[in-house]
């Protein structure tokens, strides 16, 4: 009986299942199908500032120009605990597009219309110089034209816009205007 355990071990050693290699993880057919960076979960919050934003923002009205990404800020604007992306982009003037952080990185969802695209804001032709989120408010600093500047020679007003998301639409809370009397940089 002493040899039974030893024989059982020999028999068990030969009966182990062969090792199976794990199935390969599917990958996209080409790198051009994804933004330059994608979050590990595949959502926009993971891509954040590193995404290829010029492919997602609206094109310039003048089709001969490409949009320039001025600044990207990630912060929770929707209140769902996930960082959303605020993208300031410029053509002749600037707008800010807000993308839902829970949307897929390959096809981000734009929330409402771009900020600074109202007729009043467009008259000022704002050029974003700063972008931040404080207590759920989007604060946009920009250099802009005075409304009565018919010649539009240069941007002489320092502007501060404040917006807040109400449901699915942005509401402009305030606009502060600080005329400088001198030409300010457009960038």
List keywords for this structure.
three-stranded antiparallel β-sheet, four-stranded antiparallel β-sheet, 3 helices, mainly beta, disordered N terminus, 187 residues, globular
> Class by helix and strand content?
mainly beta
The figure for the number of domains is 1
- Quaternary state of this entry equals single chain
Strand order within the widest beta sheet = 4-5-6-7
Number of helices: 3
Mean pLDDT score, rounded?
79
Distance between the termini: 90 Å
What does this protein structure show overall?
The protein has 187 residues and is mainly beta. It has one domain. The chain has three helices and seven strands; from the N terminus they run H-H-E-E-E-H-E-E-E-E. The strands form two sheets. It has a four-stranded antiparallel β-sheet, with no helix packed on it. Strands 1-2-3 form a three-stranded antiparallel β-sheet, with no helix packed on it. It is globular and about 45 Å long.
Secondary-structure map:
Elements lengths: L2 H11 L30 H4 L20 E8 L8 E7 L3 E6 L19 H6 L2 E8 L2 E8 L10 E12 L2 E16 L3
Antiparallel strand pairs: 1-2, 2-3, 4-5, 5-6, 6-7
At a glance:
Helix content is 11%, strand content 35%.
